[in-house]
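Lab notebook page, bench 4
Experiment: in silico fold of construct C2
Operator: M.H.
Input chain length: 296 residues
Purpose: comparison with the prior construct
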Amino acid sequence: MTTFATVVETQGFASAARKLKVSPSVVSRVVTELEQHLGVRLLTRTTRVVRVTDAGAAYFENCRRILADVEAAELSAAGANATPRGQLAVTAPALFGRMYVVPIAHDYLMRYPAVNLNCWFLDRIVNLVDEGVDAAVRIGELPSSSLQAIAVGKVRQVLCASPAYLEARGVPRHPRDLAGHVTLQTTNLAFTPEWRFRVDGRPFTVPVQPRLVTTTNDSAMAAAIGGLGILRLLSYQVVHEVAQGRLRIVLPDYELAPWPVQVVHREGRHVNQKVRAFIDLAVETLRARASQWNVP
């Protein structure tokens, strides 16, 4: 089961062999013997890819559950489940990670000296299974998946600009007023050629042609603070700049529904203790700080 599950998770025999530290021929033989034992084809093999059959996909989900149960039983019997230990990997959006996950990481490592922690702070969706990451902070609606999710708060999608820009160009009173303004965008926030709003409870879209598009939130924010134009970001990203008066929120009455912030993990009922300890600490800490993520 472990060999088969590893092939599915890594999407190949060679990659599974590297992870399991055996030869590809051993992996192939084990999977073939498993298929013969079950009397069903689990994988479809070609020269380039390995695809899971319908029967294989169902069997994979059962394998994950069973293997998690076995691991939990072994840890409990050995007493290792009492103290978190080993290597843990977590991920979060870059700025959110720096602002809110780093303090959690510090507290976690102080509490559990037998754990080493890898933090992946990236503005992209990290596949927890494929990339071997244990837990994540995700912002936005989650697609249907096998991941377990715990809600910790919400953030808003806000438009902001510097006081100097608004004094020079005027404050937009309605989304349609954006046609007369300079707009800025970052590729990290669902980049589209239009901005969406809610007007009288109905969707309202405004086409935008940004004068500046950047790949990082920090650079886009610097341009907005410098007076170049109006920028859309998430509320937690600009909360300090708004509090310090360097940015002002515009069109707050037309914002879309807030985005959920969730802690997600890929384990089942018997989550490993090192993961459970991190999740519990993260949920408690983030819920306590959720009020800081939004601006007036």
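Observations: Residues 54-78 form the longest helix (25 residues). DSSP finds ten helices and 14 strands in the chain.
Next step: discuss at group meeting.
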